[in-house]
Amino acid sequence: MLYREAGQFKTSYASDQAVFPILQDRVGILIILVIAFIGIPVTGNDFLINAVMIPFLIFSLAAIGLNLLTGYTGLLSLGTGAFMGVGAYACYKLTTVFPDVNIIIWVIVSGFFSAAVGAVFGLPSLRIKGFYLAIATLAAQFFLEWCFIRIPWLYNYNVSAAIEVPQRELFGIIITGPRASAQTRYLIVLTIVVAMTWMASNIVHGRIGRMWMAIRDMDIAAELMGIRLLPTKLLAFAVSSFYCGVAGAMLVFLWYGGAESTVFSINESFTILFMIIIGGLGSLLGSFLGAALIYILPIILRFVPPQLGLPLHAATVEHMTFMITGALIVFFLIAEPAGLARLWQIGKQKLRVWPFPY
Amino acid sequence: MGLLYQIFIDPFVQMGTAPDLFVQTLWEGLVGGMLYALIALGFVLIFKASGVFNFAQGIMVVFAALTLVGLYNVGVPAFLALGLSIAVMFVLAFTVERVVLRPLVNQPDIILFMATFGITYFLIGFGEFVFGGDPKVMITDQLYLPKGTITYKALGGVVSLQKLDIAAAIIASIMVAGLAVFFSKTRIGRALRAVADSHSAALSVGISLEQIWVIVWFAAGLVALVTGIFWGARSDVSFALDVIALKALPVLILGGFTSIPGAIVGGLIIGIGEKLGEFYWGPLIGGGTDAWFAYVIALVFLLFRPQGLFGERIIERV
To answer: Cβ contacts (< 8 Å) between B111 and chain A: which residues?
Structure first.
């Protein structure tokens, strides 16, 4: 009843092609942003911000990165974890070598290192695709993981072979390191994620995004239409890795506070792939929904049994979480193979014509 | 110059001067490669018949081994436990077909691939929930598998072979031969190849897809059980093995997704290549190369022959 576009006339091409053509959508996104920027930092407790919101946003950004590659360009990649790792290690090296430059600049710049590495490992994508490409990117995953362990220069020859986040400030406020408050880190993560989501939205709605989607739908046809495959595919790899790299740098610098190479293992790659498939391939909203389901669901599941008064062992809860996550993945795939974003679209369509079925 | 010497000459000099070590390394690579080949075989079986890229194959190996050991540990006699494990693999095949594959028929490959991720998660949780997450020891003695080593002096040194590995090689060969006969001679085997060629054509001549899928998942389950027994005998049985199961993927690339001989040859090449590479060239760049060596071989291979050694040529129609 409330969600209806009746009476909203479009008088220019710009308004017709807007990302959110309906007023209610624009109001909705504004409300979400207000809650995220003001509501949560003011009212949320440390647990909500530190253990739920920050990782959720970071994983969403990584999922957007992978979605640009897999969902929009149709190139399956299993190297996400390693590309995140490149971002994290690049950021660590940069900030320890040049400590005077602001850390936020380095977080963004580290994305470019990741983009370069991603483009190199994207080279085989011209010849191979599908599962074959996925396995080729596995080579990137394992090779880079090996580099993180075996090249001590990357972690400044620390005895622990781990990277430790140093304390850095912005306008006199501590933003990284163990003494930074959860609220500050949350706001920085949120700002970066919102800005980069907005950028991604512009990319996929513009010329580059259309070229990617043309390649996804049929690369030979795209080539015949004059899209150069190699530069476009490599650009997809570079942009995707840029997003993953920034997400990886934020993961270590604004959430973990320190990391070993195991953080960026193959499981990380799979988790992010889960997120985009469950959320919806080729949808930015889907990246957020998928990250919410895959990351937040286990947290909720962990808290349900104690609430119900079931005295379950911690290990048992862990196993149950695995089982339920697996079952839910299958369930959602059967219910809607196109992902949660598609469910949301169907829901919106139903709302628009409510109370009529069509 | 010194580096070039170290890369291109020195390893071969080492091989020449200590042939016993070379043979030993070769043998270990061969045994490791055989296990990769067995996992890849499970992948190929399912991929051929249903076009599903079954990511859960590695976990099925662990799950099968865990079921066997878990049943034995609660007091079931060893061979009864073996029979029951086979039954469990059948139930698993049946359930997967009913619950996962049937509702998802005609979906894109990536969705089915994703569904096998779901199965993977479920099996990890279920296996640990029922049998506990701690590593277990495989019951080799109770299944009358040989143990100990055969040592003989040869090539100016000592070469020692594990009896268990030899048994594994023999049993694996028998199983592969059995599968080959099953595929080429029996009625079900022929139906299976028909399904692999074309789902709709197979349906139209009256082959039941559901039945074929159950059979093929069950066959993959049996292969997983055998793999699990021998793998478990070499190390402990736990879900930590699943990362090693990913090694089957480069094997598939090398051998081709649809070829059983390809899976075996590919497995052996990867196994030997990674052992020799680590032993002779690994120390030059700091060791631990076997984590990625197989994938890089596969990557290089893909650039020259994307369909694999024995795979069918990929033809794209517009």
So the answer is: 277, 333, 337
